[in-house]
């Protein structure tokens, strides 16, 4: 198949850990590579956010990246990109006239909008993955939600126009049904993990305390790092390494907030903010942990728990979103209520006090990843979804 992937703000070639670069970038890159390995031709369309970026470039994994001129050629907050989706969509229409894709897979709501508009008159089937939902964000962030006000309405429109909606976890299915997306349109295909990079064996980063907790993610409040810092007084002899954010944290407001929080609860000497860590160094860092903690307030999917499990490390996670599918309570880790420092502290302390339990969770986590979450398996399942989308589009236009 000739597959067009549209990912307006999340380039598969971007550095990870910054405010707008995380799981979606990983997902698009790994899925594109997995589909290429299955013999498909994949082009990823992403916004041109730098003057020096070439119009078209071949990625080392065999897919092509097209940098779409839509808005200023500089990095912008994703909340400011909506006005540029008309030019993005127009570019797709033109590009697809010459090279018609068999299927379009859009990622995130603005890509979905550009894609359904571009594909509307050409009968190209559209598969959409939301990655995150405006309704959920609004519920959790209330007045602090900086998404454009039209987001939720546009997400409904995509749900009605797209041929197939791919949910990444069961929790998202419930949310989509409440939004009014038809059940027959929804299929669950989770994110995967690169099991060649994230593996049990390999180098391990050194540590400075008897126990180490590692937490990874974009340095934004909803990732729950402050709850971890707040729980640390309940977890003796443990250091906490927080990974993510810009490389230089000096002027980062969230880093400043976390440091102040650590000072306030008396654990400043046990909290290390590592800033952005290159993907290639992430496995050694995860392997150095006794436990990887992922405690967001909400999480559409969350790739980090899978990366930890692939490295054979137990996970303590908040029982939200995709984490309730990936982490099996009492088998591969422990699930705790979100934003509950006392439960979190207790779970971490109990697990660290019982290394045998940690070991068995780690082994079970690795097994679970191998059985369900390799990108090979996810690419194969996605391919079936594309075939279904093509068949339903053919039926729709049949005379
Ligand atoms: N990541 C990274 N370096 C960093 C911070 C994060 O490589 O400094 C990676 C992390 O290993 C994971 C992704 O970024 O692959 C974050 O994905 P996740 O789904 O957990 O969170 P999101 O950022 O999408 O909310």
TrEMBL record:
Gene3D superfamilies attached to this UniProt entry: Glycogen Phosphorylase B
Pfam family, one: Glycos_transf_1
Domain Glycosyltransferase subfamily 4-like N-terminal, chain residue ranges per copy: 22-196
Cross-referenced InterPro entries: Glyco_trans_1, Glyco_trans_4-like_N, Glycosyltransferase_grp1
The entry's keywords: Glycosyltransferase, Transferase
An example Gene Ontology molecular-function term: transferase activity
Residues annotated as domain Glycosyl transferase family: 211-355
Name of protein: Glycosyl transferase
Annotated source species: Lentzea pudingi
Lineage, opening ranks: Bacteria, Bacillati, Actinomycetota, Actinomycetes, Pseudonocardiales
């Amino acid at each position: 198949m000739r597959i067009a992937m549209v990912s307006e703000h999340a380039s598969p070639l971007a550095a990870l850990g910054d405010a707008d670069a995380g799981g979606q970038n990983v997902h698009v890159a790994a899925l594109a590579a997995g589909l290429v390995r299955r013999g498909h031709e994949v082009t990823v369309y992403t916004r041109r956010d730098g003057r020096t970026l070439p119009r078209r470039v071949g990625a080392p994994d065999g897919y092509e990246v097209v940098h779409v001129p839509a808005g200023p050629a500089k990095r912008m907050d994703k909340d400011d990109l909506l006005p540029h989706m008309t030019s993005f969509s127009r570019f797709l229409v033109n590009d697809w006239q010459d090279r018609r894709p068999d299927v379009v897979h859009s990622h995130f709501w603005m890509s979905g909008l550009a894609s359904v508009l571009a594909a509307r008159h050409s009968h190209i089937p559209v598969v959409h993955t939301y990655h995150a939902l405006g309704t959920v964000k609004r519920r959790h962030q209330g007045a602090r939600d900086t998404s454009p006000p039209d987001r939720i309405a546009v997400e409904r429109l995509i749900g009605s126009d797209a041929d197939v909606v791919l949910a990444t976890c069961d929790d998202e299915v419930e949310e989509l049904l409440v939004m009014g997306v038809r059940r027959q349109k929804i299929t669950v295909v989770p994110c995967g993990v690169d099991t060649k990079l994230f593996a049990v064996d390999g180098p391990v980063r050194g540590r400075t305390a008897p126990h180490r907790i590692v937490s990874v993610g974009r340095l934004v409040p909803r990732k729950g790092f402050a709850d971890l810092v707040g729980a640390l007084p309940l977890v003796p002899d443990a250091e906490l390494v927080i990974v993510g954010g810009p490389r230089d944290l000096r002027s980062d407001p969230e880093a400043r907030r976390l440091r102040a929080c650590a000072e306030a609860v008396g654990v400043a000497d046990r909290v290390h903010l590592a800033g952005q860590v290159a993907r290639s160094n992430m496995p050694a860092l995860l392997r150095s942990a006794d436990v990887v903690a992922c405690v967001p307030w909400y999480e559409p999917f969350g790739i980090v728990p899978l990366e930890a499990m692939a490295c054979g490390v137990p996970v303590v996670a908040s029982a939200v979103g995709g984490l309730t599918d990936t982490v099996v309570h009492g088998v591969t880790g422990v699930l705790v209520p979100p934003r509950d420092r006392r439960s979190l502290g207790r779970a971490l302390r109990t697990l660290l006090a019982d290394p045998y339990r940690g070991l068995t969770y780690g082994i079970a986590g690795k097994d679970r990843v191998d059985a369900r979450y390799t990108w090979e398996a996810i690419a194969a399942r996605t391919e079936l979804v594309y075939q279904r989308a093509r068949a339903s589009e053919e039926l729709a236009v049949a005379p």
